[in-house]
Amino acid sequence: MIESVTGQVQEGYKPPDIHCSDWVLILSPAYGDKGMRGSLVVSAESIYAWASTHVNRSWNSVLAQQQALEHLVIWTKPENVIDGYVTLLDEVQRGVLQEYAGNLIKNQPYRAWCPECKHLYEQFIDATEYLGKEGNESRSTQIWKCPDGHILRLISKTYTYF
User: Fold this and answer.
1) Which of 6, 67, 98, 154 is spaced 20 to 30 Å from 131 by Cα?
2) CA nearest to 12, candidates 57, 58, 64, 49
3) Residue partners of 36: CB distance under 8 A and separation at least 6
4) 63, 10 in Cβ contact below 8 A?
5) Distance of CA 37 to the CA centre of its chain
6) Exposure of 154 by Cβ count < 10 A (0-12 exposed, 13-18 middle, 19+ buried)?
């Protein structure tokens, strides 16, 4: 246990015992992710590119998440990655990566699994709709679709500005 700057005692991060593979499952109904109908698999290379810059630009007040981010840089480093399967994330790693899924797919490559087509696509259609701003809130609906138009992710978001 480590005491944080706020004086709270926090548990440190325990890195996974497994090696990272070429592909990592980021979002999926298998994780219980809200709004996910398909699955998003991102290359370890993309995670490494994102994590190695993000770790120097941010700080997470949740100690375990900060340590998980720092470990992602080592875990996804190309010489530490092995072939052969898709890696599942632990809960803390998911807490770090989940909200940045949109950033990770910008780095390419990624794969999107459509359960209706039963096909793994190299890209999907981002049909996110901006629903406008009202007062100090703006709303959007994030919609990801496979090339055949099946919904992979459907999630409504409201942002409140102060």
Assistant:
1) 98
2) 64
3) 27, 28, 29, 152, 153
4) yes
5) 15
6) middle
Q: Is the pTM of this model over 0.70?
A: yes
In tens digits, the chain (162 residues) has pLDDT values of 443 434 444 568 899 999 999 999 999 999 999 999 999 999 999 999 999 998 888 888 888 889 999 999 999 999 999 988 899 999 999 999 988 888 888 767 899 999 999 999 998 988 888 777 888 888 888 899 999 999 999 988 888 887
Amino acid at site 65? Q
Query: How far is Cα 144 from Cα 124, in angstroms, rounded to an integer?
Result: 6
DSSP 59-95: --SSHHHHHHHHHHHHHTSGGG-EEEEEEEPPHHHHH
Which two structure tokens, joined as six digits, stand for 126? 């981002």
Smallest CA-to-CA distance from 33 within 116, 148, 154, 122 is with 154
